[in-house]
Amino acid sequence: MTEPTHRPPRRISPADVLAQDTSNTAHLPGAGTKHRVLSGMQPSGDSLHLGNYLGALVNWVKVQEEFDAFFFIPDLHAITTPQDPEAVRHRTRNTAAQFIAGGIDPEKSVLFVQSQVPEHAQLAWVLMCMTGMGEAERMTQFKDKAAKQGTESAGVGLLAYPMLMAADILLYQPHGVPVGDDQRQHVELTRDLAQRFNSRHGETFVVPSGFYPENGARIYDLQHPTAKMSKSADSPNGLINLLDEPKVTAKRIKSAVTDDGTEVRFDREAKPGVSNLLSIFAAVTDRSIPELEEAYVGKMYGHLKVDLAEAVVERLTPIRTRALELLDDPAELDRLLDHGAAKARAVAAPVLAEVYSKSGFLTPSR
Ligand code: TRP
Question: For residue 20, what pLDDT is reported?
């Protein structure tokens, strides 16, 4: 049986989360109320790109309506390779501003910066001590990144990265962790570590489930439509950034690589360029791919590009404007993040205290 090639992107629905086995959460305070979801996105550049936005952020915005949602910016993870401190600060604020401008409501969700909640690093240590060297060295992301840096000079932080990520998750006892498929191995390690701690020290952690949007709006590079849209592409021309000026965005769409032939049709194999444009079009307008194919019968690639450029600019401009407004007042942005960190700590601190006590550490008097 062949799969239809234009299945609409699958987004995480409340049913996905509720269908998860939550039997190991029954003893927790608040069990039976709203289910909890947590995710983070690394600030890898100055602006989120369209893949980050359509592939993750749009989903988070939906998730926050139904769940007790925690979203954070993993700035501790950002220094596993050497960084300029000012650039880290700048990217952290930029990312926060784009999350809010893109629809994360800091009143509905808990939005925070990882380094402002010291419990992450504190729990990570305990988890590192429970992870085998071989287990850590088997992580494919570690192997790739260490190979790139040269294994001898790569920082130990690269090896420790997944245990810090496990700490990020386990501190909040979420049921679900919506992440890209590339994070699957890290989520599996998180589950293993949670179970290991629970079996050594008694029920402590919820064992979380990863949610991997199967066909989630997967966005490809406009110049190399078989490669995922990514900051690390050799040319920026294939990227659409949330903070770019609208005319840059329009120009990049109009110069996107298309395919042989003239027919506007979704076919990932034969027409990766046009298919990518159709996916983006569907995702920014909520029109379906078949509907779009129908609308462009007898029209040329150029028509599609002109209309798509307009649709993308229309969707992104308010986000860009709002993000720039937020960035204009960094003190207010910092205040919002500070508030988020306080809410996060209120959840994380008692979990860490339980872990520390079960690990044999004396209880501090204050
Ligand atoms: N490793 C994730 C990424 O690169 C970011 C991340 C860090 C994360 N900690 C997390 C995601 C905890 C989900 C939960 O995308």
Answer: 46
